[in-house]
Amino acid sequence: MSNNNIHWYAAKVRYQTEKKIKKYLTEHGIEHYIPFHKVVIERNGRRKSVERPVISCFVFVHTDRKTALALPADMSITMNFIHCLDTGQMLVIPPKQMQDFMFVLDFSEETVRLKNTELAYGDRVRVIKGPFAGIEGELVRIKGHKRVVVRLDGILAVATTYIPSSFLEKV
Fold it and tell me: Helix (H, G, I), strand (E, B), or coil: what is residue 47?
């Protein structure tokens, strides 16, 4: 299998099948990204910590197209790969975009302020300093605060916490 044929693909899956998929992909050595986090739930007066997917019903696989298309049958599950609206082909997520997306989702939250008036909403920006250094995205306002958003086109987007303007440059 040539590295030129390996890409990141996103798929919608049935609710609560993410752990089963993660186990299968890990056992078969297929690179994937299915982020989980701990959530405390209360049932019958008892508090319990459970692991839940950060993004429900989505999995990301890094493999060749043939292997990706065979996964649903191999695992006996429903898995619908996201397709590009223009071409109808399976959507390929660029490596840099996927790397930025994973970094932002895996990063623990930290609060800082943004005070640059030279940057406008919608500007493409790159974080040049701090824990988010190297991330590229779009400057947006969410809940009254400026943030950098990393989009997986046609799928979803994630936003950073506040970033000082001195940490940003226009792309």
Answer: strand
| Token representation of residue 43 | 């049932």
Query: What is the pairing mode between strands 124-127 and 136-142?
Result: antiparallel
Under 8 Å between Cβ of 148 and 131: no
State mean pLDDT over 100-113: 61
Strand order of the sheet with strand 6-13? Answer: 31-33, 58-64, 6-13, 79-81
- List the one residue out of 154, 6, 10, 155 whose CA is nearest residue 79: 10
Give this prediction's pTM.
0.68
Integer angstrom CA distances of residue 164 from 25, 100, 106: 39, 18, 20
Whose CA is closest to 152, among 79, 88, 84?
84
DSSP 113-146: ----SS--TT-EEEE-SSTTTT-EEEEEEETTEE
The tokens describing 83, both together, are 């397709």
158 close to 104: Cβ distance less than 8 angstroms: yes
Residue whose C-alpha is closest to residue 31's, from 63, 58, 78, 77: 63
pLDDT digits (tens, 9 = 90+) for 46-94: 888 888 888 888 999 999 999 999 999 999 999 999 998 788 899 999 9
